[in-house]
Amino acid sequence: ALIDKTFMYQARVWFTKKTESLCASCSRGCNVELTVHENEIKRMTPRPNADVNQYWMCDEGRLNHKYAGSNRRLLKAAGSAREIAASGRKLPFAGVISTASTIEEMWLFRQLMTALGAIAAGFLTLERGEPRQFPGGFVIEKDKTPNRAYAEKLWGREAVAAGVAPVVAGLGSGELRGLLVLNAIPDALMPPELVDAARRAEFLALGDILQNPMAAFAHVVLPGDDTAAIRDAPQPGSVFWDV
After folding, report:
1. Cα–Cα distance between 4 and 100 in angstroms, integer?
2. Which secondary-structure segment (H or E) carries 122?
3. HEC secondary structure over 22-73
4. pLDDT (average), residues 49-71
5. Which residue from 71, 166, 87, 86 is spatially nearest to 119, judged by alpha carbons?
6. Helix, strand or coil for residue 97?
7. How far does CA 37 lie from the centroid of its chain?
8. In the predicted model, what is the mean pLDDT of residues 102-119?
């Protein structure tokens, strides 16, 4: 009853390395400790913080690390925007970002949308159930992304609550013809209406962690959370950013 079965027989504890971190499986931000062996996360355990999670973490957060070593990880940047860049056309642009992105990513995304003259922004969020508070004070939040509050600070609560609807409408009417989607929610199900609408875009760039249906037809694919991807990704001044 006291043994983590997902860690059982995986590695000798004295051969592992431990790193302090934060759980990003909901907006609570539980303090955690990662147990790593041969560059693979073997388990996540709670790290005491009296003001946030006391000595606890939920089962969902404890087990939500398998995606990091998934064989569905996007590991290499692909695609090109050279043809559109060479044409000199300026596409009416929109962007979609997830509220699991870091606050730095959100701020930079807003700057990029301003530079591109984007006329719409959409948001990928994830809520499940209702908040659960236990007798000792520990809380499991229904918001399963860590940074929705910052997105609401940048764009407003109503804009975030609208989700991807403005972008879907703009692509459907033809008002929008270029789209950038940045998702950091592990194994998120892309809204079907967004996937269908994105097929109409003349240019689609996707940044994500795992393979998803949109990656199959995106013009540019940028892997998320991977050092090789960062090294290989287009840099400012390249044809991607010039679009």
Report:
1. 27
2. strand 120-124
3. ECCCCCCCCEEEEEEECCEEEEEEECCECCCCECCCCHHHHHCCHHHHCCCE
4. 91
5. 166
6. strand
7. 25
8. 93
Task: Please tell me the pTM assigned to this model.
Answer: 0.85
pLDDT classification of 238: cutoffs 50, 70, 90: very low
User: Which one-letter amino acid corresponds to residue 105?
Assistant: E
For residue 210, list its beta bridge partners: 73
- Report the sign of the C-alpha dihedral through residues 134, 137, 138, 143, in that order: positive
For residue 243, which of 200, 180, 187 has the smallest C-alpha distance? 180
What distance separates the 2 farthest-apart alpha carbons in the chain?
64
The backbone region for 242, taken as left when phi is positive above 0, alpha when psi lies in -120 to 50, beta otherwise, is: alpha
How far apart CA 149 and CA 191 sit, in angstroms, is 21
Q: H or E stretch including 166?
A: helix 165-173
Q: Please, are residues 30 and 22 in contact by the beta-carbon 8 Å criterion?
A: yes
Cα gap 182→112, rounded to integer Å? 12
Tell me which amino acid residue 197 is: A
